[in-house]
Amino acid sequence: MFEVVDHEKLTHKVHRLRISAPHVARKAQPGQFVILILDEKGERVPFTISDWDRQAGTVDFVFLEVGRTTERMARLQKGDTLAHFVGPLGKPAEIDKFGHVVCVVSGYGLAGMVPIIKRLKEKGNRITTIMQAADNESLYNQEALKQFSDHLLIGVGGAGGGPATALKPLEDMLKNLDHEPMDRITAMASICLMRFIAEATRNMGIKTTVHMAPVMVDGTGMCGACRLAHADGTQFACVHGPEFDAHKIKAWDTLMARRCTYADDSIMQPGFKCDNCSQW
Amino acid sequence: MEMPKQAPCERKHNFDEVATGYTLEMALQESRRCIQCKKRNCVEGCPVNIQIPDFISRMQKNDLAGAARVLKKYTSLPGICGRVCPQESQCESKCTLNKKGVPVAIGRLERFLADWERSQGGAAIPDLTPSTGKKVAVVGSGPSGLTVAADLALLGHQVDMFEALHVAGGVLMYGIPEFRLPKAIVQGEVEYVKKLGVNLKLDYVIGINASMDELLESYDAIFLGTGAGLPWFLDIPGENFNNVYSANEFLTRCNLMKAYRYPEYATPIKMGRRVAVVGGGNVAMDSARCAVRLGAEKVMVIYRRSRAEMPARLEEMENAEEEGVEFHFLVAPSAMIGDGRKNVCGMECIRMELGEPDASGRRRPVPVKGSEYVVETDTVVVSLGTSPNPLIASTTPDLQVSKKGTIVVDENGKSSKARVWAGGDIISGGATVISAMGEARIAATAIHKYLVNIDQ
Fold first, then answer.
1. What pLDDT, on the 0 to 100 scale, is given for residue A132?
2. CB-CB under 8 Å, B240 with A258
């Protein structure tokens, strides 16, 4: 059993949980994820690690209340326990001295990207972070993002704003490359936004990576639910990723459809529409 | 003697065990067919050398407790072996009676004894050997891991067994369906192994939470029984459309996560009405029969060779056919067809004919030009086989692996790395539960020999 050490509500639908799991905390690296099961009848659900404390033996992650399991998680209180908690899974994010790195975040990425940005900053990169949310009420974690970023830009898409609004700050930067070159873009955001970014930079010679969060079952390379078509052959997000070169991913439309396979059952709320995606 | 079974029309609608097992009378009557040969051919046919005539002779004398004790000397997992071993090609094929007629139903007797012992309030715990003070880490809790753990615990060694998933049992839990191997039977035998003193650590991934070298700091020896869990795909267009599953995903959702009891269990499984299972092994049969029970109207098995080359057990094929599964032989998929919303709605196939024998000794299937046609289907389960999970090999540079990703071992299961042994699918690339147990038995013997000699 794994104890809930802390539970903080960050926005009306976003929560942060802190779980006591020393063996996970001991090995956690930026960009990795955990899988939890609420009780013996629960499903296995992956979450990106947003922070850890090796000494205290705790692991943090952020989740959006979007379906059956996450709605139950929203009611967890300090002292409650999770039946199962396994990780850190997946490969750590690629960290190096790249130069000027632009980080694009939305949804859980506002938290999940923080350890990556922190480590990139420690390596001496200059960081521009673009955070995106549907409205001002959905923004969270600005302070943490600001702390490790040289510039923090915010793209708030009003009703029906869609990807165009989110892309605006990035598009402006891409037009201004002569004055302010970019060495790398990395995104942890909704799959639609990551697809737009991949297309926007495809022919510009800027290395672009995306942190994928597809449907998973075991999360250890066994089931292939999280597979994606890749220039190097079929890849599994759980063991080959979750970070991928955005320009090597093929068939984004199939990936987006796969992301929503179980939407009507567990991911989406009743009355859900794709342009109003819960991850957005 | 035949074992009673649920009628096909009935069992199609439930996940309860198909074969309901012998009654006491049936078991005793069947046991009396054994003629207690001097030359024990049946024992030679058993990968773990169960002294079959010995347990049967006790049954013949109505001594069920004694029979169970003999059986347990050779296997800690009789309820599992009695159900999933291919006895027809092992012990029973060597039975003297098989030469003239029907062999003694050894597997069914084994199963009966295991179930009888359970009904008596669980297996008796044998006297444990005093502790040797030696520690062994067993990685993976499937058939080979459970066997090594039990064998070494009985010999007095301290065994910790690590499992990456949230329950122990490996393929016995996530792969083989409830109606062939009830999960309560598996957990009963896992509990028995734990009662022998084995510590089970769930949700713990070796290669991540601890490296092999870290483990070797705390343990005298390691056994790797991590199986072959990485599914193969067809590598054809459209394979990632929605409702195209690997057999591993389909079976894991259904068996391990109990999606057939959704929403009581939280894991869903999305399946249409016309299911095509690609492949011809036991896993393909299991997938097809799960699809029947999940309510599919039509279930097709698509296999590129002919019936004679099918690797599945005859009994499983017969069960599947009785349940209405259709077999399409000499057919191979060439592309998945999407419905415009990235859901699979058909599968383009090509007819095959058998050519010259290939490396496996079976005649190689060759496409017939111009024979393409479309199979209408809305759910595809790809069941082509698996390869070893590369996690441990990739994090253990001094562990020698083959091109196929299997761990290279000698005849005692010893790997290239000091103090590390391996067995099961991780060395074979994919075989049966009982062959994994046989390899585990050999490795356990070698590990024991190593451990008792350390101090000398």
1. 86
2. yes
ipTM: 0.91
For residue B311, whether the previous peptide bond is cis, meaning omega lies within 30 degrees of 0, is no
Looking at the complex, report in whole angstroms how far the Cα of residue B204 sits from the nearest Cα belonging to chain A: 7
CA atoms of B119 and A52, how far apart (whole Å)? 48
At the top level of CATH, the class of A100-272 is: alpha beta
Residue B353 CA to residue B451 CA, distance in Å, equals: 54
CATH superfamily of the A2-89 domain: Translation factors (2.40.30.10)
3-class SS of residue A128: strand
Helical packing angle, A191-201 and A252-259, nearest 10°: 170
**Interior angle at CA B103, CA B100 and CA B109, nearest 5:** 160
3-state secondary structure at position A122? helix
For chain A, the average pLDDT equals: 89
Please name the member of B208, B246, B389 whose beta carbon is closest to the beta carbon of A27: B208
Query: What confidence tens digit (pLDDT) does each residue in B366-389 have?
Result: 999 999 999 999 999 999 999 998
CATH at residue B110 = 1.10.1060.10
In terms of pLDDT, which residue wins out, B85 or A135? B85
Helical (H) or strand (E) element with A146 = helix A142-148
Q: What is the pLDDT of residue A263?
A: 63
The count of CB pairs under 8 A between chains A and B is 116
Query: B388 and B425 in contact (C-beta within 8 Å)?
Result: yes
| pLDDT < 70: residue spans in chain B | none
Tokens matching residue B423 = 């067995």
Find the residue in B nearest to A92 (Cα): B208
The nearest CA of chain A is from the CA of B27 a distance in Å of: 36
Select from A215, A218, A222 the residue whose CB has the most chain B CBs within 10 Å, as the one to mutate to test that interface.
A222
Pair B47, B90: CB distance under 8 Å: yes
